[in-house]
Amino acid sequence: MTPLILGLAGTSLSAEERAFFADVDPAGFILFRRNVETADQLRALTDALREIVGRADVPILIDQEGGRVARMQPPVWPAFPKAELFDRLYGVAPASAIEAARANAQAIATMLFEAGINVNCLPLLDVRQPDAHDIIGDRALGAEPLRVAALGRAVLEGMQAAGVVGVVKHIPGHGRAMADSHVELPVVTADEAELEKDLAPFITLNGAPMGMTAHVVYTAWDADECASLSAKVIGGIIRGRIGFDGLLMSDDLGMHALQGDFGQRAAGVLAAGCDIALHCSGDMAEMQAIADAVGPIGEEAKTRLDRAMATVAGRTPGTGFAELVAKRDALLEYA
């Protein structure tokens, strides 16, 4: 197995992709809108991915947050509310907001489970900051760390109840970045005392099964490298100060915050301490370069991967989708 999570090009696997994935044996896969068309098509695709690597529990990821980040969309799949609505409800009725967030996450996971998807890149634990770039914006669970942590915990619990692993992101916090890391490298100049606010939700939920790094430079910790490429940030802050010991993946290697060729990017995030390098585009040449640049998955990373997937082993959705959505909507009316 290689320490890679890889994307694919379309709604079904090409012969070239089948041969490549069988040879490389990536740790997991990630799906985007280009990969989802109908319920039957999607289930056939996820079944094919499992068959190729011969692992029933291979992580198959998606970004199904709700709001403006949703790969599975109407009319085939229902829309889900943006995170900001749960934050708004929390200001009126905290317990109701937590229950609504849990029910919503469980409903999302129930939908994903039926499609053969077992990992969702949610929740965001980024603390929303005034005047920051809108790349986080209404995707955040709030501007107050305790609120973000309480709602984030409910999201993790709701998804796990329906058999889907959650990924906390973007460690150690993307909420105060003044640029979109998809487009350029954000540089955060806040001092260590200020950054304690960003760390707080991640510290509270440091037992999460999986996490994703931020392609953001924090000058207080490492003025030269973004978190994904910084051994100082990963070792000292993410593993040390935060105390996160779950599976740590990089954010997408294709984002323009990173420099160098794709092999260098993959080798760089792994050398810095990420367990897994994430590559999303499905571009075969890029994936080949990445695969050529990495060795087999490390023992510690494999242990973390197995431990993360074990948190949902044997779990299946219990509560019906319609019941969960009705509960969520009734609670959100209080806002």
Structure, explained:
By secondary structure, the chain is α/β, with parallel strands linked by helices. The protein is 42% helix and 14% strand. It contains 11 helices and 12 strands. It has helices at 15-24, 39-53, 84-90, 94-115, 145-161, 192-204, 231-241, 262-272, 284-293, 299-310, 321-332, and strands at 2-6, 26-31, 60-62, 64-66, 69-70, 119-120, 165-171, 187-188, 210-213, 217-218, 247-252, 276-279. The strands form 3 sheets. Strands 1-2-3-6-7-9-11-12 form an 8-stranded parallel beta barrel, surrounded by 6 helices. β1, α1 (15-24) and β2 form a beta-alpha-beta unit. The longest helix has 22 residues, at 94-115. The radius of gyration is 19 Å and the shape is globular. 52% of the residues are buried. The mean pLDDT is 97.
Question: Which helices and strands appear, and what pairs or packs with what?
Answer:
Layout: E1 2-6, H1 15-24, E2 26-31, H2 39-53, E3 60-62, E4 64-66, E5 69-70, H3 84-90, H4 94-115, E6 119-120, H5 145-161, E7 165-171, E8 187-188, H6 192-204, E9 210-213, E10 217-218, H7 231-241, E11 247-252, H8 262-272, E12 276-279, H9 284-293, H10 299-310, H11 321-332
Parallel strand pairs: 1-2, 1-12, 2-3, 3-6, 6-7, 7-9, 8-10, 9-11, 11-12
Antiparallel strand pairs: 4-5
Helix pairs in contact: 3-4, 4-5, 4-11, 5-6, 8-9
